[in-house]
Amino acid sequence: MAEGETDPNAAVAGKFDRLLHDLQPWPVLFRRSLEVLQVLPEDVQQDFLQDPRFRLTFEDYQPDRGWTLWLPTPGGPGEGTRCVVLRLRLNDCHPEFAAWVIAHELAHAFLRNGGWNEISDPEEAADALAKSWGFPRPSGSWRNWWKR
Ligand SMILES: [Zn+2]
Fold it and tell me: What is the pLDDT of residues 8-43, one digit of tens each?
């Protein structure tokens, strides 16, 4: 990768542009997701970047219209999508909590919703992997974390 001539922040943001495309209308959620992606190990970043079916997207709840879930175009027969669906609430909640949720969901995606090493439970595996990336599960009441 060429270094030095371009603004490093712009280069980093550009690296994840495709993955974060859907989140552009929500600058806070976009930035929070970018900040998590940036600190992931290189092999994890590459796993996401090299899978054209992988990206981050959002679910939007509107009381009048019900749920709208945006999904990528499915792959061929037998190919599942690897899409991390984030709640728009993560745009407004406590930043530390948002970062953990995003890291936890990315961990599920990296593990293909499976286990990690000796951990077979997918939820425990995602928590453990997210923690290894620097995003331990926040303690305390989730009700408080959802607040700003
Ligand atoms: Zn989970």
Answer: 555 555 899 999 999 999 999 999 999 999 999 999
> 105 alpha carbon to ligand 1 midpoint, in Å?
6
Long-range contacts of 31-38 (CB under 8 A, 24+ apart): 32/90, 32/91, 32/95, 32/98, 32/99, 32/102, 33/86, 33/102, 35/99, 36/99, 36/102, 36/103, 36/106, 36/133, 36/135, 37/106, 38/12
Residue range 54-112, pLDDT digits in tens = 999 988 665 565 555 544 444 454 455 678 989 888 998 999 999 999 999 999 999 99
Taking the centre of ligand 1 as the mean of its atom positions, its distance from the CA of residue 113, in whole angstroms, is 8
Sorted by where each begins, the domain ranges of the chain are: 15-146
- Ion ligand 1: residues, CB within 5 A, are 123, 126
